[in-house]
Amino acid sequence: MIRAVIIDDERLARNELKKLLLEFPEIEVIAEAANANEGIEKIDSLNPDLIFLDIQMPGKTGFDMLAELDKAPDVIFTTAYDDHALKAFEVNALDYLLKPVEPKRLADAIQKLHLEEDKEQIGDDEIAVNRSLLHEHDQVFVKDGERCWFVKLSDIRLFESVGNYAKVYFGPNKPLILKSLNALEERLDEKVFFRANRKHIVNLRLIEKIEPYFNGGLLLELKGGEKIEVSRRQTVKFKEMMSL
């Protein structure tokens, strides 16, 4: 069963979508929200698998809402404005439905959802029992100015502290998010993400090379070419973890 939340400021649009979703017994609408703040509350408390999200809402947009979430569920955008289409696909959402939603397009979107799920079938035992911990298969939504991305944590090779922000390195991108490194460290799985020094958290799976460095520290080269120094104190911990 796929648990879904509908977030849209128009009650008629929510009702229409609920009616269309009756054709898909595998999707259970567990809640609805009329704006971004309500949406965040529902997502935090119910942890749905999927959200149907309107982009243009009074106050915060759907993109703004996603940027405030710690981790993003699967998203199918629903909107009357097709000028957002390109932006939605840049964030590689699951799909994008124009209102009024056509049953055929909804069926296509749900088909895509099933394909994604098949691709990412993870055994329940693999998922961290601690819900507050972010699993490497979780995706996060990153918004930097007008550009937005959904990023799998496993694709992020480095978090770098920049004042109250953190720079997120994935692919060729390095957007800033308004989160401190300490706050991130609390949520990340330490078996995958390692605090190398005061300014950097690295993805252990994306280390290309490890070299000794002066003062008994280590130098890590990441898959993107970045070279990160492991402080002397953290080197002891790193060697224990990697059994070096």
Write up this protein:
The chain has 2 domains: 124 residues, Rossmann fold (3-Layer(aba) Sandwich), CATH 3.40.50; 92 residues, LytTr DNA-binding domain (OB fold (Dihydrolipoamide Acetyltransferase, E2P), Beta Barrel), CATH 2.40.50.1020. It contains 7 helices and 15 strands. The strands form 4 sheets. The protein has a 5-stranded parallel sheet, sandwiched between helices. The longest helix is centred in the middle third of the chain and has 17 residues. The radius of gyration is 20 Å and the shape is elongated. The relative contact order is 0.09.
Describe the secondary structure blueprint for this structure:
Layout: E1 2-7, H1 11-21, E2 27-33, H2 36-46, E3 50-54, H3 62-68, E4 74-79, H4 85-90, E5 95-98, H5 103-119, E6 139-144, E7 147-152, E8 158-162, E9 165-169, E10 176-177, H6 181-187, E11 193-195, E12 200-203, E13 207-212, E14 218-222, E15 227-230, H7 232-242
Parallel strand pairs: 1-2, 1-3, 3-4, 4-5
Antiparallel strand pairs: 6-7, 8-9, 8-12, 9-10, 11-12, 13-14, 14-15
Short description:
The chain is an alpha/beta fold and 244 residues long. The protein has seven helices and 15 strands.
Task: Please provide the ordered H/E string of secondary-structure elements.
Answer: EHEHEHEHEHEEEEEHEEEEEH
CATH top level of the largest domain is: Alpha Beta
The number of helical runs is 7
Low-pLDDT segments, ≥5 res: 122-131
Percent strand = 25-35%
Task: Report the span from N to C terminus.
Answer: 44 Å
**How many structural domains in the coordinates?**
2
Q: What structural class results from the helix and strand content? A: alpha/beta
CATH architecture of the largest domain: 3-Layer(aba) Sandwich
Spatial strand sequence of the major β-sheet? 2-1-3-4-5
> Mean pLDDT score, rounded?
89
Beta strands, count:
15
Q: Approximately how much helix is present in the residues?
A: 25-40%
Rg over CA atoms, rounded to whole Å, is 20 Å
- Indicate the CATH topology of the largest domain: Rossmann fold
Outline the biggest β-sheet: 5 strands, parallel
Spell out the CATH superfamily of the largest domain.
Response regulator
Principal-axis shape equals elongated
